[in-house]
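Treating backbone geometry as a discrete language has practical consequences that deserve illustration. In the encoding step, the backbone of a single protein was reduced to a row of integers, each denoting a local shape. The amino acid sequence and the backbone structure tokens for this protein are reproduced below.
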Amino acid sequence: MFHKAYPSKLRIFLASLVFLAALPLASAQAGNLIQHEMGETEVPDNPQRIVVLEFSFVDALVAVGITPVGLADDNKGEAGLIPEISSKLGEWTPVGSRKQPSLEVISSLNPDLIIADLQRHEAIVGELNGVAPTIVLRGLQGTYEDNVASMSVIGEALGLSDQMEKRIAEHRSTIEALAAKVPASESRTVLPAVVWADGFNAHASSSYTGELLEKIGFKNAIQSEPGTPYATMTLENLIAIDPDVIFLMKYSDVTIVDGWKTNPLWGALKAVQNNQIHVVRTTLWAKFRGMIAAEIIAADAIKLLY
């Protein structure tokens, strides 16, 4: 590499300079290989400009004190978030809806990490990776445990595994303490469901909310395998299952249930007869699937039933 006329010590000195000059470049390129639902992605060390495309992922960031630069907020701003999350966030930029985030806005934020949802964003992962390293996790279709597992991956991607695992351990303790408030003799079946003008979508045992409620001691009225978290139902279907308790998440002011109430079959439901139909906070129960949300949902359910 060096001319033979150079003294030996000088050649060593110059070689050392070349080596040292290369170190900053190597450091800048260093990163972590993160395993996720669609393979593995090299993520820069301690990413600072993070865009999240599902509400459960912002829950995870807030759990370790981070505000994303961009958030898919369904074009509703803070009104689309639960106050327990929005109150802990700094400034962030809306990047469109969770179903159709704006690649243009995301790119304008110069992110160094994007966190996407498997169900919603599988088809655009290639485009997202063209903007910034992207990890894909289970949120929308995931169980409660799937979503907690996603928190661990997010902690690893952020370079904050220790902090995230500590928060997960605290979360587990909180859920156990809440479960202890449910009597061992509790035998009522529960059914959380999203309702809108012409639909009733039950959340079965393998849904996030369904599995969470089972974690604290309530049996879901619909037992389902992983991968089938939701069930569209008619009034006749609901009568056949006849849950003891129904938690309604309303997506519209007037829902299909308002029509069902005029049907004599409605009055035959045990939940109706025992005054155990509860309208709950839709954004919290149906859209947020993180640890903070789980702790509030579990506490709300216990307060409503006891």
